[in-house]
Amino acid sequence: MGGLGKTILSIVLGGGAASTATGLILHNNGYLGGNFDSYEPKVSSGIKISPEKGKDVVFRVGINNQAPIDLECKSFNTDQYLMLGLEVNTKTSEGRNMSDFNLECSPNHGRDETFVYFSDFDGNQVGLIGFECLFKGSVEETNYPDKKIYKYECSGGNSAFKWELKPKQGNSEPYIAAVKSK
To answer: Whole-angstrom Cα distance, residue 88 to residue 10?
Structure first.
């Protein structure tokens, strides 16, 4: 997804906001239902793992009954944390549907390290009714010897859609897109 003509709202699945405009909105209105400065992300598994600054990561995302998808995220800045984010295309006023949502690598800058860790996510907060992702911790594996792998299990949303890995194209990094089933 991405592009100049689109207005994008991105919510990070963890403790932080992804884009400058979104960061201002969330900072002024509270972050995911709480005060931005004191918000503590929810982790139902009880596992609190903080990302490492400037490190490439892999998010292994299982969605509904689909095989897990590995989203490889490359860090372009030594002062950022990479989190799993939900990108929402808000360019239309007719409301959102599943094809307006992508899971992507979201850089997270300048947050108090106390509150930066991977956490659960409830899609109801951005209009993706019934969709949630639970953080399940880290995974040890030899396929990615130089990268940490973090696992999420997501469920819900519209069953008429499946999720697919979209490869890097031009300036666009890889992402996981909701695609209407054929």
So the answer is: 6
Picking from 32, 176, 40, 173, the residue whose alpha carbon sits closest to that of residue 107 is: 173
Q: Helices (H) and strands (E) in the chain — how many of each?
A: 1, 10
Query: How many angstroms separate the CA atoms of 26 and 11, rounded?
Result: 9
d(CA 109, CA 141): 28
29 phi and psi angles, rounded to 5 deg: -105, 0
3-state DSSP assignment of residue 76: coil
What is the pTM (predicted TM-score) of this model?
Answer: 0.74
Give the C-alpha separation, 25 to 27, whole Å.
Answer: 5
pLDDT (mean) for 114-128: 74
Question: Band of the pLDDT at 7, cuts 50, 70, 90?
Answer: very low
pLDDT in tens, 26-49: 222 333 333 344 445 677 777 778
Contact (Cβ atoms closer than 8 angstroms) between residue 15 and residue 115: yes
Q: Which of 49, 20, 34, 26 is nearest to 138 (CA)?
A: 49
CA distance 72 to 167: 10
Inter-residue contact 69 to 48 (CB < 8 Å): no
